[in-house]
Write a structure and sequence with these properties.
14 strands; globular; ABC_transporter-like_ATP-bd; AAA+_ATPase; binds adenosine-5'-triphosphate; Rossmann fold; six-stranded mixed β-sheet
């Protein structure tokens, strides 16, 4: 039996079906990404898993206990971090965590020990006497994460925890989550920022308009979405700098677009992303031959190509494939 088993989950708000027949499982020690655009039903699902809302239909078992029938028994097993996190004015980090430790029913020495241990784990120790309102967004996020850990839950539900964090804070959050998973906790993390989840999660669920469109291991989703496409993509970089660079980029773009198989070309950071359309039955050998012809065309025009490689598919591509581009 999995730690979490969600089956046929549905939530209707009047005539709106916010969550429609969603099923998935999660094992202890696993990190599951819950991906979907705005309004897909992520927060609604997480709120139900946090026992803050009840489903219209479906079952949710956490360690064999029904969240719907016995929420009081399931609650000690889960920690929930909502997408909007409010701090109280005029409380220090320690006071904030201590307040929630009391709310979780922790007492005396055990309460102090849990607050200390959470502050140490989240690296908040040196900030314990700082007011929560004076903290950076990344540090406030750690306080919010610490709050969900006080009662040592087995399942963590994190609604868009990386939203608005700078890259360093994101990497630190990822390391904290990995450490929690290594301790055997199961983590669900929702996001509409796809690329950030690929690095954090073991598996993913893709949801749109309440419906589950795909689920599986991140690498399997990437492989599946690649298999459904007859388009192959390349990254091209130029050795171009200074005043001439812009003209060279433009000339390269034009040359690429003149080639018969090129479907489109777009700038992606300091590179060009080229989409090649191949025959329906094209295999890897045809894709390589088409790429070689393209490179030859660029070089024969004297364009200073310094890198030319297949573009790695990322979670965003998988998402666009399974949602058929209906959502961005
Ligand atoms: N309490 C509510 N009453 C009525 N409709 C609701 C309620 N909560 C959510 N909805 C609707 O349900 C749908 C799913 O919303 P939800 O907040 O779960 O999406 P989400 O994937 O978390 O999106 P976001 O990324 O914007 O938070 C939306 O159409 C939303 O307007």
């Amino acid at each position: 039996m999995s730690l979490l088993e969600v089956k046929g989950l549905r939530r209707d708000y009047g005539s709106l079906r916010a969550v429609d027949d969603v099923s998935f499982t999660l094992e202890a020690g696993g990190i599951l990404g819950f991906i979907g655009p705005n309004g897909a039903g992520k927060s609604t699902t997480l709120r139900i898993l946090a026992t803050l809302d009840v489903p219209t239909a479906g079952t949710v078992l956490l360690d064999g206990t029904s969240l719907v029938d016995a929420p009081d028994r399931a609650r000690p097993l889960l920690g929930y971090m909502p997408d909007r996190y409010g701090t109280y004015d005029d409380v220090t980090v320690r006071e904030f965590l201590d307040f929630f430790a009391r709310a979780y029913g922790l007492k005396g020495a055990q309460r102090n020990q849990r607050v200390d241990s959470v502050m140490e784990f989240t690296g908040l120790g040196p900030l314990s006497e700082k007011l929560t309102t004076e903290l950076s967004k990344g540090m406030r996020q750690r306080v919010a994460l610490g709050r969900t850990l006080l009662h040592d839950p087995r399942l963590l539900l994190l609604d868009e925890p990386a939203d608005g964090l700078d890259p360093r804070a994101r990497i630190e959050l990822r390391e904290l989550l990995r450490a929690l998973a290594d301790q055997g906790k199961a983590v669900i993390i929702s996001s509409h920022i796809l690329t950030e989840l690929a690095e954090i999660c073991d598996s993913c669920v893709i949801i749109e308009q309440g419906r589950l469109l795909a689920q599986g291991k991140v690498e399997d989703l990437l492989r599946q979405s690649a298999g459904t496409s007859r388009v192959t993509e390349l990254t091209v970089r130029l050795a171009a700098a200074g005043d001439e660079a812009e003209a060279l980029w433009a000339r390269t773009e034009r040359t690429l677009l003149e080639q018969p198989r090129v479907k489109d070309v777009s700038r992606e950071g300091s590179a060009l992303r080229v989409r090649l359309e191949l025959e329906a039955d094209a295999g890897p050998a045809q894709a390589e031959a088409a790429a070689a012809a393209l490179l030859a065309a660029l070089v024969s025009q004297g364009l200073p190509v310094c890198a030319f490689s297949p573009r790695e598919r990322n979670l965003e591509d998988a998402f666009m494939t399974v949602t058929k581009g209906r959502v961005a």
